[in-house]
Amino acid sequence: MGTLQVGRQLIRAIPVAFVRPQEVTPDSPLRSIGLLGYEFLRRFRVTFDYARERVVLVPERSSAPDPWIYPGFEIDRSDPAGAATVGRVDSGSPAARAGLRRGDPVLSVDGRPTKRTELWQLRLRLRGPEGSFVTVQVGRPGHIRTVRLRRVRML
After folding, report:
1. Residues 126, 67 contacting (CB under 8 angstroms)
2. Going by C-beta distance under 8 Å and a sequence separation of 6 or more, which residues neighbour residue 16?
3. Which residues on adjacent β-strands are paired with residue 92?
4. Closest C-alpha among 14, 8, 16, 11 to residue 54
5. Residue ranges per domain, the chain?
6. 92 exposed, middle or buried (CB, 10 Å; 0-12, 13-18, 19+)?
7. Residue 26: which pLDDT band, with cuts at 50, 70 and 90?
8. Tens of pLDDT along 101-126?
9. Percentages helix, strand, coil for the chain, rounded to the nearest 5?
10. Contact between 145 and 91 (Cβ < 8 Å)
11. Comparing 67 with 116, which gets the higher pLDDT?
């Protein structure tokens, strides 16, 4: 495949493989070449044209928040007690500049406690219009702090 343009981002020389399900075994390199997940694909009407060995992506208009506009970190529930924690932190992002680290407990998002809130709802709260802010309260042993993070386009 030649190039793929997503918004302002242009990706060149994309490797694409059309394979039969039986060709993808647990030890096959085809399992980890690369995946386009729901957060990306939900923005398009996707057509698989097997005869021409191509994928056609037609942008869809959506009222859902753009998944690429956020403060540069994901909320996770990797804590054994099920508490919300900072997951991935994107380098150079507002979250990274504010000093958030993987594993930091997230106590609230925009003043609303994270306890007993579904993970998908917490992740949705991080998204919003480009340039807007989200307030996140994080706690480390002996230190709780509140940071105000700008939502920026990460792709």
Report:
1. no
2. 1, 53, 55
3. none
4. 16
5. 3-59, 69-153
6. exposed
7. low
8. 999 999 999 999 998 889 889 998 99
9. 15, 35, 50
10. no
11. 116
35 phi-psi bin (left φ>0, alpha ψ -120 to 50, beta other): beta
Phi and psi, residue 23, nearest 5°: -80, -15
- CATH number for the domain whose boundaries are 69-153: 2.30.42.10
Q: What is the largest CA-CA distance in the chain?
A: 61
Q: What is the pTM assigned to this prediction? A: 0.59
Containing 12, the helix (H) or strand (E) segment is strand 9-12
pLDDT at 155 over 60: yes
Q: What is the pLDDT of residues 43-64, one digit of tens each?
A: 788 888 878 777 787 877 765 6
Residues shown for the chain: 155
SS3 call for 112: strand
The secondary structure element, H or E, covering residue 69 is strand 69-70
Q: Answer yes or no: are the C-beta atoms of 77 and 56 closer than 8 Å.
A: no
Q: What is the pLDDT of residue 154?
A: 81
Torsion of CA 101, 107, 111, 117, to 10 degrees: 110
For the record, the structure tokens of 99 come out as: 């000093």
